[in-house]
Amino acid sequence: MSHSFPVRVYYEDTDLAGIVYYANYLKFIERGRSEWVRGQGVDQMALKEAEGIVFAVRRVEADYLSPARFGEELEVATRLLQIGGARIELAQEVRRDGVTLFRALVTLVCMNAQGRPARLPGPVRARLSAVSAESGVG
After folding, report:
1. Is the distance from CB of 1 to CB of 128 less than 8 angstroms?
2. Active-site residue set
3. At what angle do helices 24-39 and 44-51 cross, to 10 degrees?
4. Number of domains in the chain
5. When you count CB atoms within 10 A of the terminal residue's CB, does the N or C end of the chain come out lower?
6. CA distances from 81 to 11, 12, 120 (A)
7. How far apart are CA 14 and CA 19, in angstroms?
8. Residue 16: CATH number of its domain
Protein backbone atom coordinates (compact mmCIF):
# COMPACT_ATOMS: atom_id res chain seq x y z
CA MET A 1 0.00 0.00 0.00
CA SER A 2 1.47 3.33 -1.08
CA HIS A 3 0.80 6.70 0.55
CA SER A 4 0.55 9.78 -1.65
CA PHE A 5 1.40 13.38 -0.71
CA PRO A 6 1.04 16.34 -3.13
CA VAL A 7 3.83 18.90 -3.53
CA ARG A 8 3.89 22.03 -5.66
CA VAL A 9 7.27 23.33 -6.82
CA TYR A 10 7.81 26.90 -5.65
CA TYR A 11 10.39 29.38 -6.89
CA GLU A 12 12.45 28.82 -3.72
CA ASP A 13 12.74 25.12 -4.63
CA THR A 14 14.56 25.83 -7.88
CA ASP A 15 18.10 26.69 -8.90
CA LEU A 16 19.41 29.21 -11.42
CA ALA A 17 18.36 26.91 -14.28
CA GLY A 18 14.74 26.89 -13.03
CA ILE A 19 14.76 23.24 -12.06
CA VAL A 20 14.33 21.75 -8.60
CA TYR A 21 17.62 21.94 -6.71
CA TYR A 22 18.73 18.36 -6.00
CA ALA A 23 18.71 18.67 -2.18
CA ASN A 24 15.08 19.79 -2.19
CA TYR A 25 13.95 16.33 -3.26
CA LEU A 26 15.12 15.21 0.18
CA LYS A 27 12.85 17.84 1.72
CA PHE A 28 9.94 16.65 -0.42
CA ILE A 29 10.36 13.03 0.64
CA GLU A 30 10.79 14.08 4.29
CA ARG A 31 7.37 15.74 4.13
CA GLY A 32 5.96 12.63 2.47
CA ARG A 33 7.38 10.40 5.22
CA SER A 34 6.01 12.65 7.96
CA GLU A 35 2.56 12.50 6.41
CA TRP A 36 2.86 8.73 5.94
CA VAL A 37 3.65 8.27 9.65
CA ARG A 38 0.79 10.60 10.62
CA GLY A 39 -1.51 8.68 8.28
CA GLN A 40 -0.71 5.48 10.19
CA GLY A 41 -1.95 7.15 13.37
CA VAL A 42 1.48 7.78 14.86
CA ASP A 43 1.93 11.19 16.50
CA GLN A 44 5.69 11.79 16.44
CA MET A 45 5.57 14.65 18.96
CA ALA A 46 3.56 12.53 21.42
CA LEU A 47 5.98 9.64 20.87
CA LYS A 48 8.91 11.90 21.71
CA GLU A 49 7.23 13.35 24.80
CA ALA A 50 5.85 10.06 26.16
CA GLU A 51 8.71 7.68 25.35
CA GLY A 52 11.65 9.85 24.32
CA ILE A 53 11.68 8.11 20.93
CA VAL A 54 12.34 9.82 17.59
CA PHE A 55 12.88 8.60 14.04
CA ALA A 56 16.14 9.50 12.30
CA VAL A 57 17.30 8.90 8.76
CA ARG A 58 20.19 6.44 8.80
CA ARG A 59 20.63 5.98 5.06
CA VAL A 60 19.32 7.33 1.78
CA GLU A 61 20.05 5.86 -1.64
CA ALA A 62 18.79 8.32 -4.25
CA ASP A 63 18.39 8.33 -8.03
CA TYR A 64 17.65 11.56 -9.89
CA LEU A 65 15.93 10.53 -13.10
CA SER A 66 14.39 13.67 -14.62
CA PRO A 67 14.06 17.33 -13.55
CA ALA A 68 11.01 19.01 -12.07
CA ARG A 69 10.42 22.72 -12.68
CA PHE A 70 8.88 25.76 -11.06
CA GLY A 71 5.07 25.61 -10.81
CA GLU A 72 4.72 21.88 -11.40
CA GLU A 73 2.50 19.71 -9.25
CA LEU A 74 4.28 16.63 -7.97
CA GLU A 75 3.34 13.59 -5.92
CA VAL A 76 5.50 11.96 -3.25
CA ALA A 77 4.69 8.25 -2.97
CA THR A 78 5.85 6.40 0.14
CA ARG A 79 5.75 2.63 0.51
CA LEU A 80 6.88 0.47 3.43
CA LEU A 81 9.42 -2.16 2.42
CA GLN A 82 10.44 -3.69 5.73
CA ILE A 83 10.05 -3.15 9.46
CA GLY A 84 12.44 -4.45 12.11
CA GLY A 85 12.81 -4.03 15.83
CA ALA A 86 14.35 -0.56 15.56
CA ARG A 87 14.48 0.03 11.80
CA ILE A 88 12.04 0.93 9.04
CA GLU A 89 12.87 0.72 5.34
CA LEU A 90 10.84 2.73 2.84
CA ALA A 91 10.72 3.26 -0.91
CA GLN A 92 9.85 6.78 -1.98
CA GLU A 93 9.28 8.35 -5.37
CA VAL A 94 8.60 11.87 -6.57
CA ARG A 95 6.35 11.76 -9.63
CA ARG A 96 4.84 14.17 -12.13
CA ASP A 97 1.75 12.90 -13.92
CA GLY A 98 2.68 9.32 -13.04
CA VAL A 99 6.26 9.63 -14.32
CA THR A 100 8.97 8.99 -11.72
CA LEU A 101 11.44 11.89 -11.50
CA PHE A 102 13.26 10.89 -8.32
CA ARG A 103 13.52 7.59 -6.44
CA ALA A 104 14.94 6.86 -2.99
CA LEU A 105 15.39 3.95 -0.61
CA VAL A 106 15.32 5.30 2.94
CA THR A 107 16.30 3.58 6.18
CA LEU A 108 14.90 5.09 9.37
CA VAL A 109 16.02 4.13 12.85
CA CYS A 110 14.43 4.67 16.24
CA MET A 111 16.54 6.62 18.70
CA ASN A 112 16.17 7.54 22.35
CA ALA A 113 16.86 10.97 23.90
CA GLN A 114 20.56 10.13 24.18
CA GLY A 115 20.81 9.41 20.47
CA ARG A 116 21.17 5.67 21.00
CA PRO A 117 19.24 3.01 19.09
CA ALA A 118 15.88 2.11 20.62
CA ARG A 119 13.24 -0.48 19.81
CA LEU A 120 10.01 0.61 18.19
CA PRO A 121 7.36 0.84 20.92
CA GLY A 122 4.81 -1.98 20.75
CA PRO A 123 1.80 0.14 19.70
CA VAL A 124 3.80 1.89 16.95
CA ARG A 125 5.17 -1.39 15.68
CA ALA A 126 1.66 -2.87 15.67
CA ARG A 127 0.30 0.03 13.59
CA LEU A 128 3.12 -0.16 11.08
CA SER A 129 3.03 -3.96 10.99
CA ALA A 130 -0.64 -3.72 10.03
CA VAL A 131 0.38 -1.60 7.04
CA SER A 132 3.10 -4.12 6.29
CA ALA A 133 0.59 -7.01 6.38
CA GLU A 134 -1.83 -5.13 4.11
CA SER A 135 0.86 -4.49 1.52
CA GLY A 136 2.36 -7.96 1.70
CA VAL A 137 5.64 -6.61 3.08
CA GLY A 138 7.55 -8.87 5.45
Report:
1. no
2. 15
3. 70
4. 1
5. C
6. 33, 32, 16
7. 5
8. 3.10.129.10
Among 98, 93, 96, 72, which Cα is nearest to 19's? Answer: 72
Q: Label residues 73-86 b or e (16+ Cβ within 10 Å = b).
A: ebbbbbebeebeeb
Three-state DSSP at 97 gives: coil
> Which domain does 40 fall in, by range?
2-135
pLDDT in tens, the chain (138 residues): 689 999 999 999 999 999 999 999 999 999 999 999 999 899 999 999 999 999 999 999 999 999 999 999 999 999 999 999 999 999 999 999 999 999 999 999 999 989 999 999 888 888 887 875 565 544
